[in-house]
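Please fill in the sequence for the structure shown.

STRUCTURE ENCODING:
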């Protein structure tokens, strides 16, 4: 039974349920809802299923005031506290108890099959949890550790590791326009001076005009001048004196 200090949780609430007085069961074949006066229920109200600890309580209450009409404590399901009928899935037989421990059997029925399905499933889920709690309490260490994994090597089993044998990836070279590789920067140092304005030795400038040329005996440079001053490529340079 439930102990003091445990909180009460609500498993299911159904707003419409009918209660019937049932005749004593004459044979062992089970209860039949056809033997009840289904068109004239003896009481109508709501059903609220609660749980306190491992015990479930089926409470029949008034729809408006919430006053308790009857209550059926359930310690196991299926069991004697809740039984199904043989001719319908919408009707059940409950064993109700009062505060003095006296019990009686009544019939309850739902107008919708969905309500009877929810009633059945809520009890099944609760006692499935109760079963798991009982198994854990019997073997707390095994439940905490769970199944052990065998990570050892079996006979003849080996493992191969390839370390440091991967191929090295070449770093991509930066490319300029047109997909050509960029030239490396010049080495550090002094750059070559720019060419002077004077003519370097052994420079030859092709002649664009006539065949008249003047040679400077003091310089080995050869300067070719055009006979036409207006077409001189060298601008304002004057020809050396003879």
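FILLED IN BY: designer on duty
SEQUENCE:
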């Amino acid at each position: 039974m439930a102990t003091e200090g445990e909180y009460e949780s609500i498993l299911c609430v159904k707003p419409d349920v009918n209660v019937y007085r049932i005749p004593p069961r004459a044979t062992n074949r089970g209860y039949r809802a056809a033997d009840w006066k289904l068109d004239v229920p003896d009481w109508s109200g709501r059903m609220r299923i609660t749980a306190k600890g491992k015990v479930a309580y089926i409470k029949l209450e008034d729809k408006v005031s919430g006053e308790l009409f009857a209550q059926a404590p359930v310690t196991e399901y299926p069991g004697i506290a809740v039984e199904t009928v043989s001719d319908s899935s919408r009707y059940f037989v409950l064993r109700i108890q009062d505060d003095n421990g006296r019990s009686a059997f009544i019939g309850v029925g739902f107008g919708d099959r969905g309500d009877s399905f929810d009633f059945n499933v809520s009890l099944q889920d609760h006692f499935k949890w109760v079963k798991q709690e009982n198994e854990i309490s019997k073997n707390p260490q095994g439940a905490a550790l769970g199944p052990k994994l065998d990570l050892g090597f079996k006979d003849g089993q080996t493992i191969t590791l390839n370390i440091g044998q991967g191929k090295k990836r070449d770093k991509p070279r930066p490319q300029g326009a047109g997909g050509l590789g960029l030239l490396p920067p010049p080495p550090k140092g002094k750059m070559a001076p720019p060419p002077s304005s004077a003519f370097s030795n052994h420079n030859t400038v092709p002649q664009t005009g006539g065949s008249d040329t003047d040679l400077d005996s003091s310089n080995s440079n050869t300067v070719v001048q055009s006979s036409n001053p207006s077409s001189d490529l060298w601008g304002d340079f004057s020809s050396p004196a003879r």
